[in-house]
Write a structure and sequence with these properties.
Blueprint: H1 18-22, E1 28-34, E2 39-42, H2 44-49, H3 63-66, H4 70-84, E3 89-97, E4 103-114, E5 120-129, H5 140-152, H6 160-166, H7 171-182, H8 186-204, H9 209-215, H10 221-232, H11 236-249
Antiparallel strand pairs: 1-2, 1-5, 3-4, 4-5
Helix pairs in contact: 6-7, 9-10
Length: about 250
């Protein structure tokens, strides 16, 4: 192996040497898929999060077969779109529901894999957990006021331009600063705040879905339910029932 770039390619036995490195990164999911969207390489983090006992239980299957519900189908649609349109998908905010009903947020990056003839033969991707927000970040003070405003008023329609004006920045400068400090755009951060609140209210209260939707910035509870299912794989009612059932099992 004189060319170190060959380390990024499958070995003669079909294994991927890069997995050895990425198996040791607990907050990052790595995968390679063929043109049909079937996994041909995964790291340990993906194996653990989908609940498989062994990597071989994942290989050869699509995301819809590995991740149950709406998220699996959404991942398949993303894969198909990226490969069909030769489009790189960068920093797509996604959410998984943890075993206690908590939100696990990540940013996904997918890239079509092209052979020497220019034909798309698969897809490589990573999903990294959104790191906790640190007040020790050098630029945290510059966005603190806008973050506090989003947390206090997330039920209201909030425009990025208005949030940027609060901290005395242009919209573009504010978005770059948010990416640097929070690893998300202002819209992504607001979506996370709203859904964290919705999950908490569904877990800890008996309020109706319509009330929760309104409190979390949605005037139409049907639109909220559709977005909730797209993000979590469950309707709000199914999510609440799932937690109640899990509590009885404990």
């Amino acid at each position: 192996m004189n060319d170190p770039r060959r380390w990024l390619q499958p070995a003669p036995d079909g294994s991927w040497p890069i997995e050895v490195l990425l198996d040791e990164v607990p907050d990052l999911i790595f995968y390679v898929k063929d043109v049909q969207g079937r996994y041909v390489s995964v790291n340990e983090t993906l194996r653990r999060r989908c609940g498989a006992q062994h990597k071989r239980d994942v290989l050869g299957r699509t995301a819809a077969e590995v991740f149950t519900g709406e998220p699996g189908h959404r991942f398949n649609e993303q894969d198909d779109y990226a490969m069909r349109h030769r489009r790189e998908l960068r920093d797509v905010l996604e959410m998984y529901v943890g075993p206690q009903g908590e939100a696990l947020w990540c940013l996904t990056h997918k890239l079509p894999v092209v052979n020497d003839d220019g034909v798309v033969v698969g897809l490589a991707g990573v999903s990294r957990d959104v790191p906790p927000l640190s007040e020790r970040h050098a630029d945290f003070a510059r966005v603190a006021q806008a973050l506090a405003f989003m947390h206090a008023h997330f039920a209201r329609p909030l425009r990025t331009s208005a949030l940027a004006a609060q901290v005395g920045l242009s919209e573009d400068s504010f978005e770059r600063l948010m990416r640097r400090v929070c690893h998300m755009t202002p819209k992504q951060f607001l979506l996370r705040v709203r859904f964290d609140a919705a999950l908490r209210l569904l877990r800890e209260s008996r309020r109706s879905v319509a009330d929760i939707a309104h409190e979390c910035g949605y005037s139409d509870h049907s639109a909220f339910s559709r977005k909730f299912r797209a993000m979590t794989g469950f309707t709000p009612q199914e999510y609440r029932h799932r937690l109640q059932h899990a509590g009885r099992d404990d």
